[in-house]
Design goal:
The protein contains nine helices and 19 strands. The protein is α/β, with parallel strands linked by helices and about 450 residues long.
Length: about 450
């Protein structure tokens, strides 16, 4: 991530963001020390402005062009509209605990924390007021403009602590709901600390009011303790008119394991960016994802995997299906530092173009500073295999159904690494629902 100094005048959106910060600064949670951190973060954002195509990490998602205005900060979610969003649950069949964050605020009364012994949940404003050093330890020293903006404007969220050796019986869903009658912007921060030797499953989900042009800037910090085993599934099904930017920053301790899988199927503009640091020896981590784009949607997945210690293993597999005039991008970089000998890292991105008008860009990279490693990367893109399609149709399967089977198999491969049948089944339901909507479009 290399920041670039502003060389042009503010856009309308940047002016709106500056006005938002000036108006909200004194009311945002946290004391004087936190306010100073917010001011420093906003100064970093002001220095560069919204990311644009000359910033290499944002080459394929020019927010300076795509973000035309800044919506007002969200207020409390109206109960009746929130109920509608909550009911549209893409993984309703999955039995899980829930930490509900509505319009950026942790809602204890809407949450279900049964069956997760060893886990504590605290509202972010309380932590910012009493022990602000617990927030931002993994993310607030970078130069990414949207992460700095999150630090400046974060309204709420939660701090989740999993005790050492804890094994919660149920998966824990952190569900972000956005609901309201008018466009709004939501800035959330979630901090998750997993203690040594704990085993825990998380589901992160994002959705909002249909047809509402809201803007989300979400940031998650995940600190995985030594020898912990963490599964993290992400589901993004935002409104078709929403703009969604989500950052995921994680540090993984010695001997720990993290499996992360994401399913993205919504939002006019959606970008997920992950920054992973392997900070202990013998770490195993996997990141995979299935992205579905249609209409004129734009989806961007960006991942930086940094191996900082020896004998780390990482596997990355990202799939995308691009329909209509949609555009997508994958940027992945594996960095192996000098001391990270015996690293084994592989990265692959595959895109399935369902029309001639769709576009997808892939840019996998390696930066290796050690000499005893096994690293590789690759990228492919193409259309549905004509031979496989013919084979299914020759056996009496209509073309639309045959295409659906092939697309589902292509995307479903990205979910196999999660190693949790119940969670994987819930995620496959999101793919099935997207394919069903596709089959009904003219």
């Amino acid at each position: 991530m290399t920041a670039e100094t502003r060389t042009i005048q503010r856009t309308r959106a940047e002016e709106g963001i500056a006005a938002l910060y000036a108006a909200a600064r004194s009311e945002l949670p946290g004391g004087d020390a936190m306010r100073a951190r917010r001011d420093a973060a906003f100064a970093r954002f002001e220095h560069t402005g919204l990311p644009h195509r000359r910033v290499e990490a944002w080459k394929y998602t020019d927010l300076r062009t795509l973000m035309r205005s800044a919506a007002p900060l969200a207020g409390p979610a109206p109960a009746e509209l929130l109920a509608v969003v909550a009911e549209a649950d893409p993984i309703a069949a999955l039995d899980r605990a829930q930490i509900v964050i509505a319009n950026g605020v942790f809602e204890a009364e809407l949450s279900d924390l049964q069956g997760i012994e060893g886990v504590t949940v605290e509202p972010l404003p309380h932590v910012l007021a009493t022990s602000p050093a617990r927030v931002g330890a993994l993310s607030d020293d970078g130069d990414d403009a949207m992460m700095a903006l999150n630090t400046a404007l974060m309204q709420g969220g939660a701090v989740v602590t999993v005790a050492a050796q804890a094994t919660p019986a149920r998966p824990i869903e952190i569900v972000y709901l956005t609901a309201g009658p008018e466009p709004m912007s939501v800035y959330t921060r979630t901090v998750v600390v997993v203690g040594e030797g704990a085993t825990v499953r998380f589901v992160e989900s994002h959705r909002g009011s249909a047809g509402l042009a809201y803007q989300v800037n979400a940031l998650t910090e995940l600190d995985v303790g030594p020898y912990a085993d963490v599964t993290w599934a992400r589901v993004q099904t935002e409104s078709e008119t929403a703009q969604h930017v989500s950052s995921f920053v994680t540090r993984i301790g010695e001997g720990a394991r993290l499996e992360h899988v994401a399913v993205n199927a919504g939002g006019a503009l959606a970008r997920w960016q992950g920054f992973v640091t392997i900070a202990g020896t013998g770490v195993h981590t996997g990141f995979s994802g299935a992205t579905m784009l249609s209409g004129a949607e734009h989806g961007d997945t960006t991942l930086v995997m940094t191996h900082g210690e020896p004998r780390g293993v990482s596997r990355e597999m990202f799939k995308a299906a691009v329909d209509n005039q949609a555009t997508g991008a994958f940027q992945g970089r594996i960095v192996v530092l000098q001391g990270a000998q015996k690293t084994d890292a592989k990265m692959m991105a595959k895109a399935l173009l369902l029309t001639d008008a769709g576009e997808f860009a892939s840019k996998p990279e390696l930066e290796i500073f050690a000499d005893d490693v096994q690293c590789g990367h690759g990228a492919t893109s193409g259309q549905i295999n004509a031979t496989e399609l013919f084979y299914l149709m020759a056996r009496g399967i209509p073309r639309p159904a045959a295409e659906q089977l092939l697309i589902e198999a292509f995307l479903g491969e990205a979910l196999d690494a999660i190693g949790d049948g119940a969670v994987a089944t819930g995620l496959r339901g999101v793919i099935t629902a997207w394919l069903a909507r596709r089959s009904t479009r003219p």
